[in-house]
Specification:
Alpha-Beta Plaits, 5-stranded mixed β-sheet, elongated, diguanylate cyclase, GAF-like_dom_sf
């Protein structure tokens, strides 16, 4: 796994990377539980864990030994681990100014030593850590640090592999299945808030393929993907739903905010150069549907799809907001 330079001062980008892996609040998985169990045994410690750091909390993907499943981010050792591209070694937390007053040091389980290795994504963001804790003072050798670092690389390889299987090979966007999973997750949130779904369809794309060939058509898809990716917020989700159809899930966005994005998309495509088709221009039609608590995923998609159909049938190159069925 080739990792780009560590990005230390881009918290929005880091959190977007966390979201990209779609791991938060997921069910336990054997491959990760096996890793922490093995690490706990090798190091002979009370606790080993894979911790993911959200904006304000730490969430444990896999843990071996007693420990919290979630914690306030700033109370955790791993919060400090992700601030660097090197392992964090704490031999005695009770005498370390950073941790001497930590609630997990002065209170149960009275932690004393810690070794944590950042889990770094291929694009250089630390999304969490693989770590071990002990209730006794302990020195960690260079060999032990190397061993835990190797296990951390295994964890990230598993996460990257799983992510790759959810991405469209041509565009690098989420697949239909992965995108639908995100819609389901939005629906299942306890306090979901606002969200808007945008379906995007390239106008007359069949004519592009018929005239210029499928290879040229693929280049058009990649060019459009690249241009739109630059417009979509890191916190939003972008998928290729099939053929020339794309989807954007705008988290926390009302229809008004989503319409602002559709206007930017139209403006960007009007200026997009497409050498693969002789410099010809393409337009898109878009259908929008705001999130309604209690509505099924299929009904949400259907509202957006009806709006998309209306946009195409009334002249294309426009965006229309879907309405509730009566």
């Amino acid at each position: 796994m080739q990792i780009r330079k560590f990005k230390a001062d881009d918290e929005p980008g880091r959190f977007a990377a966390v979201q990209r892996f779609e791991i938060l609040d997921t069910e336990p998985e054997k491959e990760f539980l096996d890793i922490v169990s093995l690490v706990k045994s090798i190091f002979n410690v009370p606790r080993a864990a894979i911790n993911i750091i959200e904006s304000d909390r730490q969430w444990t993907k896999a843990g071996a030994g007693e420990g919290p499943g979630t914690a306030v981010r700033t109370d955790t050792f791993c919060h400090h681990t992700i601030m660097s591209d090197t392992p964090l070694v704490v031999t005695d937390a009770s005498t370390d100014n950073r941790f001497a007053q930590n609630p997990y040091v002065i209170g149960a389980p009275e932690l004393r030593s810690y070794l944590g290795v950042p889990l770094t994504s291929e694009d250089g963001y630390n999304i969490g850590s693989l770590c071990i804790y002990d209730t006794r003072r302990r020195e960690f050798s260079d060999t032990e640090i190397d061993v835990l670092s190797n296990f951390a690389r295994v964890v990230m390889s598993q996460l990257e592999l799983r992510l790759t299987s959810r991405l469209d090979p041509l565009t690098g966007l989420l697949t239909w299945r992965a995108f639908c999973d995100l819609l389901d997750r939005q629906r299942s949130l306890r306090n979901p808030g606002a969200a808007t779904l945008i379906l995007i369809d390239i106008d007359h794309f069949k004519e592009v393929n018929d005239r210029y060939g499928h290879l040229a058509g693929n280049e058009v898809l990649k060019s459009i993907t690249s241009r739109l990716s630059g417009l979509i917020r890191k916190s939003d989700s972008f998928g290729r739903l099939g053929g020339e159809e794309f989807g954007v899930l705008m988290h926390g966005a009302t229809a008004e905010g989503a319409f602002h994005l559709t206007r930017r998309i139209q403006e960007a495509l009007a200026d997009l150069s497409l050498p693969a088709i002789g410099g010809a221009k393409v337009t898109v039609s878009m259908g929008l549907a705001g999130f309604i608590p209690g509505e099924s995923r299929d009904d949400w998609l259907e509202r957006a799809d009806r709006a998309l159909y209306q946009a195409k049938s009334t002249g294309r190159n426009r965006a229309i907001l879907g309405q509730l069925s009566l």
